[in-house]
Predict the structure of Putative gluconeogenesis factor.
Amino acid sequence: MIRTRTVRRLRRSSGSGSTPKVVALGGGHGLSASLAALRRITQDLTAVVTVADDGGSSGRLRSELGVLPPGDLRKALAALCGDDEWGQTWSRVIQHRFTSKGEMHGHAVGNLLIVALWEQLGDPVAALEWVGRLLGAHGRVLPMSAVPLELEATVRGHDPARPDETDTVRGQATVALTPGEVQEVRLLPHDPPAVPEAVQAVLDADWVVLGPGSWFSSVIPHLLVPELAEALTETRARRVLTLNLAPQPGETEGFSPQRHLEVLARHAPKLTIDVVLADEAAVPDRVSLDEAAERLGASVELAKVAAPDGPRHDPELLAAAYDRIFRMHGRIGPWR
């Protein structure tokens, strides 16, 4: 009962004429968590999604048809579906995966729908708008680049027999689960073109939210697209960086919360952050996190945002945290 009242309060606070214009960047389950929260507190929401996925259904479609990997775009659209019967039904449908002994095994319905519209319309942005309208999505979804990207990483200790040596590994799926310590990630091609609508959305925003998500394979890649990185530094929007609840096996295993900030700063030295949001139970050393955040120009906000039933963000608790941050840390211009 308390949760229902919370959601209604947040929705009332973001009514017409008083809603912030928010852009969320990321990919996979982390971006989905952020979008599921943000759609509760704003009516003007844009997701900018990484397009470097090369595993599973997305990887197969990308390899066979030469298209953008649709999986993270699909997940973002599903997260923007409403809580009514229409929204929840379509969310389940586009997330549904076929189970068979043939070539359709593992393909997600939403991936096929998105690719079909891409082929019909020849325009990835327009096609995603059509899917969003079909689902009744509470916001729009944009790819960060109009070309498929490949992730490349320098990893120390990738070979356990050579713990002090570095190797180069390629592919988002490989980087996400790599043994060893990721030192740096790059995109191939090195200077990919950004989707103009994504750049404009960042420039026009009141707030930009980065994270949570796979740090090297979903969060940092946005900072490696030159036009998007420039927009993130030039925008008048305030910037929120949302930390993960725990290090991820593989790419950030053993990372402290402050280490996440340090590697982000190393990849985007010109980027400043206004607020770092972290779950209060995931920060064992508040002083070190404060110091790392200060080097980015940010203050730290701790809140209870983890779901009680597992290591994931609770959308209503995360929505309440974002709502509080948006109100406490001021506005740049009136909400549209």
Observations:
- The radius of gyration is 19 Å.
